[in-house]
Specification:
6 strands; 6 helices; about 130 residues; alpha+beta; two-stranded antiparallel ribbon; two-stranded parallel ribbon
Length: about 130
């Protein structure tokens, strides 16, 4: 029996710029692969919406292509602040807040109006892994 293949990702969705930074791939090549459907992205609701690469699904598919029978995708924490998610994903805090308002990024329910939004990274990763590619 094969050992489980453990992959750790920083964020289920990242900007194109952050992906280029992480992989050292050429920006134009990444954009070409997105257009060709070789890199999964979060569905957009408008033309001006930022392209976000589905890093969780891409990672899962690469592991499957490597013929791994058991894949474990690990995240650093189940919940992160908007600011922390901005740091790890490359997404601007304002864009994250809009995605929270649009219910595209799940958050931990607040007990008071002064509490920070905590992005449910575990649930966001689950949704990213369930996306079609």
């Amino acid at each position: 029996m094969k050992e489980p293949y453990v992959l750790e990702i920083s964020a289920p969705y990242v900007t194109v710029e952050r992906y280029v930074e992480m992989t050292s791939k050429n920006n134009n090549t990444v954009l070409k692969h997105i257009r060709e459907g070789k890199i999964p992205v979060m569905p957009k609701s408008g033309n001006k919406e930022m392209t976000l690469i589905n890093l969780a699904l891409l990672t899962k598919n690469e592991a499957i292509n490597m013929d791994q029978s058991t894949i474990i995708i690990a995240i650093a924490a189940p919940y992160v602040t908007t600011e922390r998610y901005a740091e790890i994903s490359g997404i601007k805090p304002g864009t994250i807040e809009r995605k929270i308002s649009a219910k595209k990024f799940p958050v931990l329910p607040k007990e008071g109006s002064r509490e920070l939004n905590l992005i449910n990274l575990a649930l966001l990763t689950k949704h990213a892994l369930e996306a079609k590619f």
